[in-house]
């Protein structure tokens, strides 16, 4: 197993990525919990938030490198 060089990753890029990943995964996780609790509408809303966040993250990543 080798080492990975992360010196090319800027602090704002790292922070933005970390925040979006936490937002997406927590929204998806809450949606699963809500659906198992039988609360269908909040579960679907959480899934929608995760999808919209994923799309927004993709747009930000595409514009970041441009």
Radius of gyration: 15 Å
Q: On the 0-100 scale, what is the average pLDDT? A: 90
Q: What's the end-to-end separation, in Å?
A: 32 Å
How many distinct beta strands?
0
Helical segment tally?
2
Helix content: over 70%
Shape: elongated
What fraction of residues sit in β-strands? Answer: under 5%
Q: Which class of secondary structure composition applies to the elements? A: mainly alpha
Uncertain spans: none
Q: Which H/E pattern describes the elements?
A: HH
Q: What features would you describe in this structure?
A:
The chain is mostly helical and 66 residues long. The chain has one domain. It contains two helices and no strands. It has helices spanning 11-36, 40-64. The longest helix has 26 residues, at 11-36. The radius of gyration is 15 Å and the shape is elongated. It starts with 10 loop residues before the first helix and ends with a helix. The model has no long low-confidence stretch (mean pLDDT 90).
